[in-house]
Amino acid sequence: MTTLSQNHSASTSQTLKIVVAHANIETREVLEDALRELGHSCLAIVTRGCDLIAMCQDQMQVPDVIVSGLKLDDMDGVDALVECNEVAQQQFPAIIVTPKTDLSEVEHALQDHVMAYLIEPVCKEELKPTIHLVIQRFREFQELKDQVKDLKQALNDRKLVERAKGILMRRNQLSEEDAYRRLQKLASSKRQRLAEIALGIVTADEAFD
Length: 209
Hints:
By secondary structure, this protein is α/β, with parallel strands linked by helices. The protein has 8 helices and 5 strands. The chain has helices spanning 25-37, 49-57, 77-88, 103-109, 124-147, 151-172, 176-190, 194-208; strands at residues 17-21, 41-46, 65-69, 94-98, 116-119. The protein has a 5-stranded parallel sheet with strand order 2-1-3-4-5, sandwiched between helices. Helix 6 (151-172) packs across helix 7 (176-190).
């Protein structure tokens, strides 16, 4: 079976196998309906983190994307995603669905394993661009992993790259994808790793500010 972690060229125009994990039935139904309208397959709908973890461990049911609530019936949603990555020994593109009151907690998680979020109540129209965003960020993370051997280093590098993208977006009015392409171009021309280019941009920005 081909997953996004194995096939980096996959796009949101393809049918994706998506797991929805959320404790609230209304939110689950909104997400399921929206995914079907987009042409994606709901691989499973679960309410407990332990079920999500077991599914990720099963090589016959590995999802392309996970959409999880911040709180599940038996554990924290971010903790469940982290454990999924550990037991499956691979990373999954993950979207967290959260109340606005818990947004600061999710924004902190964005620095590590979570790559995008949706605010409750979920708007169907926001799901498609969010899936696109999480897949784009996942590809970027896979590229960073290819440049280093250590997962922890790749996560730290991702934090630098996200900060550098934000600086380029702010200073040059670029989209997130264009900011990342500029980083790639600089890394290629300077023959440096993406993280090294990102560090230079972050350091320069701090100096000017």
